[in-house]
Amino acid sequence: MLVLGLVVGGASGFFLGSALQESAPPQGEVVEVVGKVPSWLRGSYLRNGPGVFQGSHLFDGLARLHRWDFSSDGTCRVSARDLDSKAGTFYRKSKGKTLFNEFRTPIPLSRWPLSLAAGGMTDNACVSVAVSNKQTFACTETVAGTYAIDPHTLRSRQHSFSGDESGLVQTAHALPIDRGDFVNVGTSFFPPRYNVFKLKDNFKKKEVIASLRPHDSRLSWMHAFGSTRTKAILVEHPCVYDFTALLSTDGFLEWAPERGTYVHVVDLNSGESTKIKCSRNFFFFHCCNAYDDDDVDEIVMDVCAYDDTRIIDSLALDKMRDPASDIPESKILRLRIGRDRVKEEGPLNDAGATGKFAEFCAINPAYARRPYRYVYTNAAPNRPTSAANGLAKTDVLEKRTTIFETENKYVVVGEPIFVPGGGPAEDDGVLLVVGHTQTDNHLLVLDAKTARELARVHNPPIPYGFHGAWLPSSSGGL
Ligand SMILES: [Fe+2]
Fold first, then answer.
1. How far is the CA of 302 from the centre of ligand 1 (A)?
2. Which tens digit of pLDDT belongs to each residue from 178-208?
3. Per-residue pLDDT tens for 345-401?
4. Are 450 and 464 in contact (CB under 8 A)?
5. Using CA atoms, how far apart are residues 137 and 128, in angstroms rounded to an integer?
6. What pLDDT score does 279 carry?
7. What InterPro entries does the annotation carry (predicted)?
8. Does residue 384 have a cis bond before it (omega within 30 degrees)?
9. 13, 60, 304, 411: least surrounded by Cβ within 10 Å?
10. Distance 58 CA to ligand 1 centre (A)
11. Spatial contact of 33 and 345, defined as CB atoms under 8 Å apart
12. Host H or E run for residue 468
């Protein structure tokens, strides 16, 4: 169990602390639920994220999967398991050695032969969860870092792809399209290309539909992209790979604002593409939604946008543990993409209410790739803060934002996921999100319509996490 005496760092540092690494992951532990979980919420919430903080940056943590099972008898059970990756297995067997170069944690040169023999690129799939028709996957940005998950046992095995080559890396956010297929963007370095591909046959077969040249010789690092029903939208922002710094603890990315920002629009059927320059630079991790606005012949794409890449530096563990640290500002930015120009609108959210912060966006999945009204994001209503500490609901039509009310004050709030239910309206449903207080953490069940707390699950000590997915009882949830 967590021992507060072992807490590392600042006021909100325990969720990244080394003490958590020593605690045994829960195995179907029945946990206390305060409040009332809606009777229709039956299934499992599966969340990915770092479990062991082996390096200097949040993105270097070794993957641990957490699962919350909401049963018909009203109980909730929590389970967790470290991913069965080569990176994680080596770390555990070697008692703390790193097998691969991670985001900002390079390995010593003496370990390169071992690393290359194991594939050379990390398979630490700690970022996201993708659910196809038949299988659940843990993913990161390397192709090697895709693991098929047994949602019941949380055991995992490395997944391989067939079909076209798309490059060594791909975004961590493959997007579902029609008939159970996905679309994603791979990046190949020699020659430099962005490869837009469809994933068919249960996440198995890659079919490259467009191979795009970067604006110049440098490649933009893309964590995510957007997709409407007919188009993929790649934003080539000035956060570019810098291979000369590949082994540096400062990372392999460079902010090159002189380069400009470009939007590539790719037709999902023909593969034809266009490139349009934006009037200003910005950076983003995540796309809230995108859709075709046929009335005005434009594509709408909403992102959680930053002015630059300082957010990446701010996610270094020493910064996150520093109570004086303050995360950079971000906002929900709307891109209206026409045939030859991009108009930027926004912020769509209320800067004052959100503490000028928006990240980890969630919508009702039934509204993905179509006009929508509500987006739920992290916020930072209490600054200074080294991490998001609030949750916001934004009406993108009215540009109105509401901050969720909770019984406790949280110093860190993770990604919300939206689970539809209880009615037909877009905001009929709940948000599931992990919040950390100074000493404890809860899985919150929040009413998406009223922005109020319905119930909170008292978790065993768990670390900060990234992305997750809801598995209804009918499709893999328990
Ligand atoms: Fe992400």
1. 15
2. 888 999 999 999 999 999 999 999 999 999 9
3. 999 999 999 999 999 999 999 999 999 999 999 999 999 999 999 999 999 999 999
4. no
5. 8
6. 95
7. Carotenoid_Oase
8. yes
9. 13
10. 12
11. no
12. strand 468-472
What is the C-alpha separation between 292 and 322, in angstroms, rounded? 43
Report yes or no: 368 and 289 within 8 Å, Cβ to Cβ.
yes
> What is the extent of the structural domain holding 360?
4-475
Torsion angle, alpha carbons of 368, 369, 371, 376, to 10: 40
Helix (H, G, I), strand (E, B) or coil at 142: strand
pTM listed for this prediction? 0.94
C-alpha 304/C-alpha 398 separation (Å) is: 18
Cα distance between residue 187 and residue 348, in whole Å: 31
SS3 13: helix
Beta bridge pairs of residue 244: none
Mean pLDDT, the chain, rounded, equals 92
- Per-residue tokens: 470: 């809801």
Distance 295 CA to ligand 1 centre (A): 31
Task: Count Cα atoms within 13 angstroms, Cβ side, for 162.
Answer: 5
Instruction: Enumerate the known binding-site residues for Fe cation.
Output: 173, 223, 286, 467
Which residues have C-beta within 8 Å of that of residue 445, sequence separation ≥ 6? 35, 37, 38, 41, 430, 431, 432, 453, 454, 455, 456, 457
CATH number at residue 461: 2.130.10.10
pLDDT at 231: 97
Rounded to the nearest 10°, the torsion over CA 308, 129, 29, 75 is: 100
Average pLDDT over residues 5-33: 61
- What spacing in Å lies between the alpha carbon of 359 and ligand 1's midpoint? 10
Q: Are the CB atoms for 413 and 433 separated by under 8 Å?
A: yes
Determine what percent of the chain is predicted with pLDDT higher than 90.
Answer: 81
Q: How much distance in Å is there from the Cα of 430 to the middle of ligand 1? A: 21
Beta bridge partners of 227: 232
405 CB neighbour count, 10 Å cutoff: 12
Q: Rounded to a whole number, what is the largest CA-CA distance in the chain? A: 60
User: How many folded domains does the chain comprise?
Assistant: 1
Strand partners, 64: 82
Q: What residues contact residue 208 under an 8 Å CB cut-off, 6+ apart?
A: 164, 165, 166, 186, 195, 196, 197
Confidence at residue 468, expressed as pLDDT on a 0 to 100 scale? 98
Contact 138, 129 (CB under 8 A): yes
- Ligand 1 centroid vs 113 CA: distance in angstroms? 31
Residue 303 Cα, ligand 1 centroid: separation in angstroms?
12
184 Cα to the center of ligand 1, angstroms: 13
- CA 312 / ligand 1 centre spacing (Å): 12
CA of 63 to the centre of ligand 1 (A): 14
Contact 432, 443 (CB under 8 A): yes
